Structures are given as C-alpha cells and as structure tokens.
C-alpha cells in the first residue's frame, strides 16, 4: 500500500482550475520594480506598458511584489523565482504550527502531522512546482487556528497584539489572493467561540473590522501612489499609460454560472470556460464581435468581457432562470460535489528528506479507508474532552467552501488537509495507548 513516488505521481494532485499568479507576465513588472523602483511598469515589444493582458487585474495588482520579496528573502541570490518566498512561508508557518500543536497536544501528534503537511502533494505543486499562490489560504487557515487554540482550550482572553497580527496577515494575503478572505471569516468565527463576555467579543470584532478596512485602504492608497508615479514616468517616456481600472474583481455569479455544468451535463452552459460566456456578453451589449477579439481602451489595453458593468447581472439572471426550471439543481450539485470531494482527497504521505512516501488513493480501498478514518475519529472522540482538535479540524473545511459552491474538480478537492489532522491524531493516540498497555515496562 505504501510506495515511493516520483514527481510525475505528485503532479497528478495539482491545481489545474485556477491561474493564480500569471508568472511570465508578472515577472516583467517585478524586474522593473527591482531596477527602477517603479510599479507597475514593464517593457513589452520595446514599449513601456502598465498592464499585460490582465496580469494585474482581477485581484492581482500586488503580484509583482511577490518576486521582489522572494529575491529579498534569498538575499539576492535567487532571481525570477517564487520558491524562496513560498519556502519561507511554508517553513515558518509549519514551525509555528508544530510548536503550538506540541504545546497543546503532544510531540508525537505534532511531528506526524507536520510530516504529513510538508509531504502534501497539492501544496508541493503549488509552492514549488507551479510557484503559485493558491496554497496560501490552506496554510494560513491552519496558522490562524493554532494561534488561537490556547484560548479555546483554557477560556482565556486572547491578547490584542495577536488579533492585530492575525488581521494584518490576513490583509496581506488577501491582497495576493481573494480566497484568503475566508481566513477573515475564520477569525470572526474564532472570536465567537472564545468564552468571553459579549461586550469583549463585540470589541474584538470592531477591532478586526477596523483594522481590516484601514489596512486594506492603506495598501490601496500605496498602490494608487505607485500608479500615479508610474503613469508620469511612462508618459514622459512615450509609453502606454494605463487608462482602465486595476480594481476589477472576480465576479461570483459569472463563475457560478460557468460551474453549473460540472456534473449536470444537460444544462448546456459549458464548464469553466470563459470563452463560452463572451458571445452572451457581446450579444447583451449589442457588440457584433468575434468572441476571440476583445475591445480595447483608447490607449490599447484589452477590456476583459467580465469587466463590463452588466456582466454579473447577465449571468445572475441566467442562473436564477435555471434554478426556476429546476428548484433542486443547487442541492444536487452540492451533494455531487461533496461525494466527489470525499473520494478525491490528497493521499497520506510522509517526508523522508530524500523522498516522500505515499499511500496511493487511486482505488476504492483507499476511499473506504478515508471514510473509515472520519467515522472512527468522530465516534471515538465525540465522548471525550477533545474540543481543541475538533476546533482545528472543523475550521479546515472553510478552505473547501469555494470548491463546494463553485467547483470541486480540476484538483480543488486535493487542497484539503483536514484528514491529515485526524489521521495524525489517531496514529499518535493509538501509539500512546499501545505504549501504556504493552510497552511501558520495556
């Protein structure tokens, strides 16, 4: 059942659903930031530009700084790579998680879980193979949970500095990936579970909301300052000044519409294909265009069809019309996605420094094994005082919420790490029981 696998095996558990950071296009902006201190500016076809496609739109406007930070972390030795930054995030967060788990549970559980975590094939792909950003919500989710585990366990008041640091971290990662907003929901949920007076909970929530809004506003003001500086420079160099809006967000109704055909193939909506939505948008806007030709701004920057003001409303109406014809379509989707999710988790693996060893999950036996672990954990520990492990385990499900709402295939389900927690907990507890009953005399 256990076997050592190559990188080709690990690549089977990758995220192919989301682009995340557009590596090649963003790199030029980072290089110009390093050389001239200007952002967002890059050279493209011997001309200075302030956007390349939509590499910096749809919540990506700070992506160029990631390579800059990555090079700083490597002390300038590694350029044009996100591996130093991702390695720093993974190692530092894992170290803190290990310390907190060791303190609140035991060394064995902490050691086994961290070995599972650093061998997680989906995270390996995101952090080191793809050098991308989709793994941040997963590791940040764990970090936020363990930082507050003491206060769930002992019913103590969390210090204000911890709330401030956690909110600041969430803000930073939110500016990199919109999915990190789930960690803000997680932090708010944690505040509700802390056993303090209602007045203190309200104070904490006001503090979190104020910090989140003010820090985000500060980031936005800084970006606007850099854009203004960059526009003056590009204009003076006869480049192409950006004349659209960087603050374009991913639109939820459009994404939801594109996901409806994931299992219900008779809906004829296509599945997760932007190109199939463009003709609909062009028709509603009375634009007689080929769906491969986008409109351009005055200065020649592409206008993404999803950035039109009425796009979201178009697909909201189309989605609600489908719901009207089939009232339980969403319930069926959630059921099918949940079933798919539990049958397509990342395999258990242990880090052996040179190689990772995995239990393959490509057969029915392993799926039954996964279900058995969940069932055994819930039954065995429901009658004990184990609210801390339930607390961390339950919050890991926040990371899969977007998958259950929008789509769970294309590698999304592999991101989950909750089964690693409970398997590590079961193993460590079993070893302790065996040691106390049969081996304590040796």
Spatial gap, N to C terminus:
30 Å
> Helical percent range?
55-70%
Order of strands, main sheet, comes to 1-7-6
- Average pLDDT, rounded to a whole number, is 85
What is the oligomer described by this structure? single chain
Helix and strand succession? Answer: EHHEEHHHHHHHHHHHEEHHEEHHHH
Low-confidence stretches: 1-6
Question: How many helical stretches?
Answer: 19
> Structural class given helices, strands, pairing?
mainly alpha
**Whole-angstrom Rg:** 24 Å
| Share of β-strand residues | under 5%
* Molecular shape: globular
Structure description:
It is a single chain. The chain has helices spanning 7-10, 23-36, 64-73, 83-104, 107-118, 121-129, 136-147, 149-153, 160-174, 181-193, 198-236, 252-259, 274-284, 311-325, 329-343, 364-381, 387-396, 401-405, 418-439; strands at residues 2-4, 42-44, 47-49, 295-296, 302-303, 349-351, 356-359. The radius of gyration is 24 Å and the shape is globular. It contains 19 helices and seven strands. The protein is 59% helix and 5% strand. The protein is mainly α and 442 residues long. The model is unreliable at 1-6 (pLDDT under 50). It starts with a strand and ends with a helix. A three-stranded antiparallel beta sheet has the order 1-7-6. Strands 2-3 form a two-stranded antiparallel ribbon. The longest helix has 39 residues, at 198-236.
What layout of secondary structure does this protein have?
Blueprint: E1 2-4, H1 7-10, H2 23-36, E2 42-44, E3 47-49, H3 64-73, H4 83-104, H5 107-118, H6 121-129, H7 136-147, H8 149-153, H9 160-174, H10 181-193, H11 198-236, H12 252-259, H13 274-284, E4 295-296, E5 302-303, H14 311-325, H15 329-343, E6 349-351, E7 356-359, H16 364-381, H17 387-396, H18 401-405, H19 418-439
Antiparallel strand pairs: 1-7, 2-3, 4-5, 6-7
